[in-house]
Amino acid sequence: MDSTSLIYRTYVSILERELICAMGCTEPIALAYCAAKARSVLGTLPERILVEASGNIIKNVKSVVVPNTGGRCGIATAAAIGVLGGDENAQLQVISQVTDETIDKLGPYMEKTQIDISLLESDNLLDMIVTVFFQDSYAKVRISNEHTNIVLIEKDEEILFQKEAEAEEEKGEELPDYSLLTVKDIYDFATSCNLEDVTPILDRQIEMNTAISDEGMRHDYGANIGKVLLKMGNDVRTRAKARAAAGSDARMNGCDMPVVICSGSGNQGMTTSLPVIEYAKELKADQEKLYRALLISNLVTLHCKSGIGRLSAYCGAVSAGAGAGAGITYLHGGTDKEISHTIVNALAISSGIVCDGAKSSCAAKIAIAVDTGILGFEMYRNGQQFYGGDGLVVKGVENSINNFARLGRIGMRETDREILLMMTN
Length: 425
Fold this sequence. Notes:
Blueprint: H1 6-18, E1 21-23, H2 26-42, E2 48-53, H3 55-61, H4 75-85, H5 100-112, E3 114-119, E4 127-134, E5 137-144, E6 150-155, E7 158-162, E8 169-170, E9 173-174, H6 183-192, H7 199-218, H8 225-232, H9 236-251, E10 258-260, H10 266-282, H11 287-306, H12 317-331, H13 336-350, H14 362-381, H15 397-411, H16 413-424
Parallel strand pairs: 2-3
Antiparallel strand pairs: 1-10, 2-4, 4-5, 5-6, 6-7, 8-9
Helix pairs in contact: 2-4, 3-16, 4-5, 6-11, 6-13, 7-9, 7-10, 8-9, 9-10, 9-14, 10-11, 10-12, 10-14, 11-12, 11-15, 12-13, 12-14, 13-14, 13-15
């Protein structure tokens, strides 16, 4: 692929924008970032905090441990640590520099500070408003659609900054066009691109995601799904699932190590990368082969997820598992044809997995999604596949991806409402 072409430049831009570092589950971290920004605008430590959050934010913050909080969970914790010790300039690493002294202050601060939480009625599944108060003054910050996308800053009835949530520009630059993602072009890009354009991003993903997976294997986190899997066997398929699950074990249960995310999610970032890394070791693939396999897995994940949105009742690990399967297919010599069949097979199997929030069981869902991605590859390698008319599968990989995206974006809206009702009641 020509490095000066629009598709090439767009794919590099998408990777640079998506494969970024984050510490902790991205929804509570986004909330902490929003709160830290509001405190900065207020200019002092607030005596009262109001958090308004969309259902999907409430769902994904409710049960996950927030790093650097002494093991605390929940919306009030995320907001409080954001205002108390967050760096408003650090975005998704907003609470990475919180000190032990600040953690010690968190409990007393939450006891004396009124923190109100309410459901924000919004058409955007990712939406939050944090308003902080001190005496007669207030500051309000709103984040919508993406985890660091600030759309409103207001202080004492004066609007300091405002933009549309769906604005086509970010930091003064036009957003990359995700509609240019296709399986064929992803394969062409991954197999021909100048690796110097992407190596720093991929090196960071390999290093950070491997490190948190190691941490999950070493210590006791959540349900220890990674360790449970390794007790069941030590073949490469089991290790691939265990490596991804162990990273989620740690991340969902308070580990403060950063990960490189994908499609706004650390769990998806680990799911799409760690199984590919494990298979590359098993197959003794050289570094270039690994890089190109990771390009395929990351971009396929983003392609499958971009039609769904950041948050949904549809578990994001499903898309990432299909991405991992695509990367593993490439490591075994597969072309865009084999990769396409792997993706369709994987999506056809596991797209019924629902998202009921971030918590320990995410690691188990990741293991299932990775297993499905591998099964999708093994099916086609053994002459088996799903055909158009089998459920949501239709002829053509792009048409099938669109169908499953529609399921996640539109078909599961009512499911999302029911999940939220059950979790909050």
